[in-house]
Description:
Blueprint: E1 2-8, E2 12-19, E3 22-26, H1 32-40, E4 44-49, H2 55-58, H3 61-64, E5 72-75, E6 85-87, E7 92-95, E8 98-104, E9 113-117, E10 122-126, E11 129-130, E12 133-134, H4 142-153, E13 160-163, H5 168-178, H6 182-196, E14 204-205, H7 206-212, H8 229-241
Parallel strand pairs: 3-4, 4-5, 5-6, 10-13
Antiparallel strand pairs: 1-2, 2-3, 7-8, 8-9, 9-10, 11-12, 13-14
The site of fe (iii) ion has 6 residues, from α2.
Amino acid sequence: MNIFDIPAFTDNYIWAIQIDNTISVVDPGDSKPVIDILKEKRLELKDILITHHHYDHTGGLLELKKYMSGTVYGPKNQNIDGIDVMLVEDELIKTLGYEFRIIETPGHTLDHIAFYNEENDVLFCGDTLFSAGCGRLFEGTYDQLHDSIQKINTLPEQTKIYCGHEYTLSNLEFVKSEIKSDFIKKKYTETIEKRSINQITLPSTLSIERKINPFLLEILPDDIKDLKAVNCFKELRIRKDNF
Ligand code: ZN
Ligand code: FE
């Protein structure tokens, strides 16, 4: 699957799936960078996939409807203007011939969903899981976000994590303050290098995340590792919020 990023705002990524001269996009928070790419690369816009209702993921939707030939897929949320097909757990959609299964991932928002293509090990997870971090809790409970992330954690380790923001560096700063690990140090150095030349740090993979992302609960700070899983998750989220 050919996927490229369209940067938006200061740290959002709009993901584009491409076949020949046609793309579908995930979470177009802004229409302008998408329209620019369509013109510049002479591409056509087929479908739009939406992970959750936040403006930085949906803001370009209505304008882009004028350019697209396909369908807007998104969560079951009446408050998002422009969704054609509202999706729930385990539903299957097809875009550009690729099948995606819907995984409900409430927590960051209650309506949050992720799109999973098993054949190519691709996961578009919006603001649920980031590289070395996870989304803030705006609407859901710690339990919900913990469960959503554990659901993602059951996917195969080679699953590529296409998340909604370039937060890797600031996330790793938190992680390395909590956990001593050579792998994390190495990732941190690599990430500094990439970001210093404005290079993208995504997609990550689940196997990498299991070694650098404490929110998956596979690596943990020593002082909380005996807590019950969800309490551990809650403590980590609170520490990160205050970091
Ligand atoms: Zn969000
Ligand atoms: Fe966001």
